[in-house]
Amino acid sequence: MQAILVLAMCTLGSGVRLLKRDLSGYQLAKCNDGTPAAYYHDQDVRPAGDKVMIYLPDGGDCGSVGDCTRRCNADPTLCSGPKESVLEQEGGIWSSNNTENPFADHFKIFIHYCSSDSFAGTNNGSLSTGNLIFHGKHILTAVLKDLVSIFGIERAASVVLAGSGSGARAVGYNCDYVSAALRGVNPTVDVRCLADGPDFVPWWVKTDDEQCGDKDIHKLEAEKSFWGRLDD
Q1: What's the whole-model pTM score?
Q2: Can you tell me the distance from the alpha carbon of 32 to that of 120, in angstroms, rounded to the nearest whole number?
Q3: How far apart are CA 81 and CA 89, in angstroms?
């Protein structure tokens, strides 16, 4: 498996303004509610052919019709395409300070999270999903295709896939997939994966009480079926 680095993304200096690009041209890139997914990109596109950072944000997830319905009703922005045309990010990996941030000179991408499936689902809306769409994997695929088509990231020497919280779990679910996809168009690209707080705790380091009678395993398996999750 492609090596995954776990690193705290602490707050550092100044930030960036990112511009929205919607994915309406990609049929499968849909949010839970069926609206087109989108991502935000750095205004300075010059580093796109050299160094790229793709960020998967935190946002939680849900694994049942009831939980997902409550989630989307409580905060529709978690399940729908973004309305903001500009996204401002500050500090940490978004800092423009080269002395504090190793990613300051990277072409930065922020993928809006609206699929509630840690960017791993492939299930269409149906009665079994409460008519919600779980296309996180398709959204990530569409972003990669668009970045190659529009910004030419196939020329990049290095690409970092980073994420926090549920986005860090998404990095775990997709690290090898992204690496294989990018190496399919550029065999020499250096792909690294950065997971901040993924909460992946192996079952073998937990006591029987901590495992809650295999509750964690059952939850993951239920999500896999509910989302149509495709793992690395």
Answers
A1: 0.88
A2: 13
A3: 18
